[in-house]
Amino acid sequence: MTAAPAQPAGSLETPSLARRLAAFIYEGVLLFGVLMIAGYLYSSLTQQHHALQGQTGLQAFLFVVLAIYFVWFWSHGGQTVAMRAWHVRLLQHDGQPVGEWRASLRYLASWVWFLPALAAAWLAELRSAAQIFALMVVGVITYALSARLHPERQFWHDALCGTRLVTWRPAARRAQSDR
Fold first, then answer.
1. Which residues pair with 164 in a beta bridge?
2. Among 73, 88, 123, 135, which one is least packed by beta carbons within 10 Å?
3. Which of 142, 23, 11 is nearest to 78 (CA)?
């Protein structure tokens, strides 16, 4: 896979919040399959016969699988499959491609989408999947809306990591849209 040529940071527009959230939801759909296969692999290799057996190990394994997925895609072209479908690309703030170190930092920082809601569920001792899911949805929407407070409408973990999401169409489509 060849990286698309870098453009000056000033010419890159921030995708709409709706488009970024659509890519986020689509990413979740795609990751369902990735995580199911990884979970099957883990349970086969560890001889896990019960869902609660080895639960912590499974969670750690899936965390690493997700890290590999995101870091690889972000540092090799700046787009996951969902980001490509929605014409969103991850770049450094100066418009240059993201390296593995910065992609790893962004992966860790991006857990801010979920950790506050998960911590609140744990502190409230919620056990109902519906309650936890509702809390997660509220947390994700709240965090997404907080991007409106950023001067460039970027997510806060991107500001922390020196990255930004930009609208990015393939060169052939850019040429057609310029006509």
1. 91
2. 123
3. 23
